[in-house]
Amino acid sequence: MPEVHPLTQADTETELGVESTDEATRPHEVVADLEQPARHVRVFGSRAFFRLWLAQVVSATGDWLGLIAITALAASLGSGSEGVAIGLVLAARIGPGFFLAPVAGVFADRLDRRKLMVACDVGRAAVLVTLPFVDSIAGLVLASFVLEVFTLLWTPAKEATVPNLVPPERLASTNSLSLVAAYGTFPIGAALFALLSRVATLLSDAPSIDALRLNQEGLAFFVDAGTFLVAAAIVWSLDIPRRTPRERESSRRVELGHALRDVKEGWEFAFVNPTVRAVNLGLATGLVGGGMLVPLGAVFSNVVLDAGETGFGLLVLALGLGVGTGVLTISLLQSRLDKRRLFTEAVLASGVLLLVAATLSSLYVVVLMVGLLGVCAGVIYVLGFTLLHENVEDDLRGRAFGALYTMVRLCVLLSLLVGPLLAQLLDGASSGLVDREVSVAGVSLFLPGVRLTLWLAGLVIIGAGIIAARSFRAADRAAAEVAS
Hints:
It is built from 20 helices and two strands. The chain has helices at 6-16, 28-35, 39-44, 47-77, 82-94, 96-110, 113-128, 137-161, 171-183, 186-202, 209-212, 216-236, 245-250, 256-272, 274-303, 308-333, 339-359, 363-391, 394-434, 449-483, and strands at 437-440, 443-446. The relative contact order is 0.11.
């Protein structure tokens, strides 16, 4: 009998209220309903993933709200040195990923993922309700660190669960929807924070208002805690398909003595498996281009384009619109695509586009190039996650995503921190060697450090694209040898 995807039985039995039977004995009306599933099931791939997506939307909205509130509270507590205070708090949100993401992947592969996600959401809610009463930067840094640990545990568990909830042909669409849930909720979180300012004003005359800390930041933390409790309730209600006997046996407990072995196994798989290696390199280094535009975009707009803040705003807008366009396009055309080929081409194209954008000096042409770069970034993100979902076995999936998130964080940190430092160093070298200008075929080319840095980033991305293409070819050769 052919293998039945979890969606077929789990969603059908839940939605129609019938017991699983053979096709020949199943009532005709049940078969008709299978042929015409509900609209949200057609869009999201399954009812279970739709609910998981709702949980992600709710928790992501709260996460953005909480991040804004934490930043505001850090600025308030660090009066006189606001920048340092905010930097410390944000570092507490970025730093743990380098060390704990691989270990988090082990937990996602060894524990019950539904219970793990619920425990993380409840844990985040518990931390958030204490934040209104934190009166020191040290306490805020500690709370941010703990919140990030829970997030690191939740994310690989969620990613490892997705392929068990939707059919393979819907993975590209579900990853697009996950991207929308993760980043498209930022405006909602920002709007909620602004609204809570009005609520705090209305409550300002209420008794015991100071004791309850019901100011704007305090209300935001309480609302954020509520969003995580709602998300926990949704995840708890999910009927996640049972894993294989081997996977259930391995997930009974996490033995600390075997943790390092499990982490090593995950990292070896991430770099030895040619498909996973290609995706990790493409996704991580592809972020260098987009990440570089954040700290260096304003400098490039001022120094090269002479467009100031207006030019920087246009560059950021073009990048965001491009990402959205790429995600939407992949969602619509997923069934007709050669995912591996398009992934490689998108990585190579993003490197070339970054090189071209950094070379030009016309604002609107550069904006167009950056918009196309955003399209490639959206394609890389969605196809990268889809390829991992399709090519990694369930018992390794959590660790594979843990390794990916570690590499992504490293590249983002390089973009945000190393990029500006490198631009400054290269600017000094260019000024000393060629007075920041060279002539090519009679045409003068301005060579500030920011342009040289973006060129270097583009070359790194192109190199990663070449390595990814070779890795995919190695995967094809290995599959051919196994088949023969």
